[in-house]
């Protein structure tokens, strides 16, 4: 009987990440960082390396690649995962590498007039989605992952799941969008019914939910609010499903609209979230309420918006304006 050939290291990484239910995009990012780490050290096997080699790689990223702090931290997370869960050789608590500098930039915020112009420069599904981001303060990925059941029109609220901190939260559903979203639902439901009629209609569900509710992936309430225009093959299961819209569709639409209406600021999807937060503070809402709506674990993260208010945190006016 022929011995089973051991799996390649990166395939082992994927298996462990799927067992722990990591997101597919995280899986791809971690695999890429581990591959870069191996190539940086001339294809040495990570089992033959430890803290000094990890430190050298992270230092290289900061000094020679000039990566952002968040990028370097992602690379470190990937390597910590590799050594702890795949190789069973946890790294020491202290990695002594040159660290990339944390960005101190204040977020870009649009005025209410600029938001209005930006939204008017868009159309169709992209415009509806952008309005929802600005009106609710959701992150791009949170909006894309919305399921039909997550929108509560009766209470004008949205339950945001699969958040950055892995905690569900509730945010506001703009009442002005209710008729637009209900009309959108009619179109989405027709797409789902057509898929079912053609023998498809399944949607991705996290592993635990798929095991607990094996028939739920075909139900209407579990479908994405903003489905893709095409069915695609799930890279993990190999099943043909209709996923949600790709991030690039919305990102490009927002960027094009900003250029079209002549907004001379660096505008992206996250700018709508920043604008939502700042405009709520301008309208008198307290910082704790804002923290809950945005889903920030630490109040310090929310406090950054007090520094971009029109009149500043102390309401200071220039002496030239007095």
Describe the structure.
One of its GO terms (cellular component) is cytoplasm. With 322 residues, the protein is mainly alpha-helical. It has two domains: 78 residues, DNA polymerase, domain 1; 196 residues, hpI Integrase, Chain A (Orthogonal Bundle), CATH 1.10.443. The chain has 13 helices and five strands. The strands form two sheets. The protein has a three-stranded antiparallel sheet. Strands 4-5 form a two-stranded antiparallel ribbon. α6 crosses α10. The longest helix has 20 residues.
SSE arrangement:
Elements: H1 9-19, H2 24-40, H3 51-63, H4 69-86, H5 112-120, H6 124-136, H7 140-144, E1 151-152, E2 157-160, E3 169-172, H8 178-197, H9 207-212, E4 232-233, E5 240-241, H10 247-260, H11 269-282, H12 287-294, H13 299-303
Antiparallel strand pairs: 1-2, 2-3, 4-5
InterPro entries: CB (IPR044068), DNA_brk_join_enz (IPR011010), Integrase-like_cat_sf (IPR013762), Integrase_catalytic (IPR002104), Integrase_integron-type (IPR011946), Integrase_recombinase_N (IPR010998), Integrase_SAM-like_N (IPR004107), Tyrosine_recombinase_XerCD (IPR050090)
Subunit structure: Forms a cyclic heterotetrameric complex composed of two molecules of XerC and two molecules of XerD.
Protein name: Tyrosine recombinase XerC
